Amino acid sequence: MDAGEQRCFSRTIDISNVDKVFFPDAGLTKGELLDYHVRIAELLLAHLDGRPVAVKRYPDGLEGQGFFQKNAGSHFPDWLRRQDIPKRDGGTLDHVVVDEPAALVYLADQGTIEFHPWLSLADDLEHPVELVLDLDPPAQGEVGAVRQAARQVHTLLDELEVASRIKTSGSAGFHVHVPLDGSAGWDVVSALARSLAEAVCERHPDALTTSHRKQGRTGRVFVDWLRNSYGQTSVAAYSVRARPGAPVATPIDWGELRTVEPRSYDVGNLFRRLGQRDDPWRDDPPAAAAAQVSDRLEALREDG
DNA sequence: GACGTAT
DNA sequence: ATACGTCAACGCATT
DNA sequence: AATGCG
Ligand SMILES: [Mn+2]
Ligand SMILES: [Mn+2]
Fold this sequence. Notes:
Layout: E1 4-8, E2 11-15, E3 21-23, E4 28-29, H1 30-46, E5 51-57, E6 67-69, E7 82-86, E8 92-98, H2 101-109, E9 112-117, E10 130-136, H3 143-159, E11 165-168, E12 174-179, H4 186-203, E13 208-209, E14 221-224, E15 251-252, H5 270-276, H6 290-303
Parallel strand pairs: 13-14
Antiparallel strand pairs: 1-2, 3-4, 5-6, 5-8, 5-9, 7-8, 10-12, 10-14, 11-12, 11-15
Helix pairs in contact: 1-2, 3-4, 4-6
The structure holds manganese (II) ion (MN) (2 copies).
One manganese (II) ion binds next to loops.
It binds 3 DNA strands through β6.
């Protein structure tokens, strides 16, 4: 991508610093990162369209300091959607909402490396459209343990007849997504996420834990259900991660879990994959009703 | 990355 | 003109 | 009330 004013997805964006190195180990520049976002825009947008999105910006690349941003900056263009969103503490955010591909490119030009959407839509903040379980191994590179954890979560969800999908995190683990029908509020969804996490940990107490404090995990895979709250986010499918090698959080099929690792895909190789196969998350599976799933899970936990 | 202030 | 300082999130279980 | 965590 060239510097200066570019016409991009029907918007004009003033691109800067295209030769600045953002990923030194991979030799990837900001311009190349912008190219990635132009190319991935359709798929990335498909998985966060209409949601409030927090961005993690690194204006000086991986070597510089990064920060989260939710509020739309005063200099952000008029066409970029923003929305007043109440905080739980009574305050208000002027939150970025992504609803067009140009927004992704604009934000990437602002130094955004990671996109972190809410689990609910801007038009219905109180009713999440998905539930996410984040599986983190005790240490980087413990792929076997976190793969096994993912299979165990999948098994439980299958028993509950709930459709689920998996992606690499681009970091150390995997994320399991459960599409929801929007019938339940955060209280129900958060409680369900907690019960799912606790249920799978009860089945495999030596391998899995829900302990939020690192100290309590003792070599086990952390099943993080706490993402499932109002105003919380998890990294988007097809977002780049701010890690060496420019890894990408990549949707995969359950059958790929045998071979794919958390950082298998990155900005440099993702399009080879997508050239050979469709987005594994292209077709929306049936969306679950959280309250009903909670009832079934309660019954399952009583029996055994 | 953008902006305000100081040199 | 250029350099420098400052700003850019949140929710919540647990202790 | 403060902390740890993602
Ligand atoms: Mn994680
Ligand atoms: Mn800077």
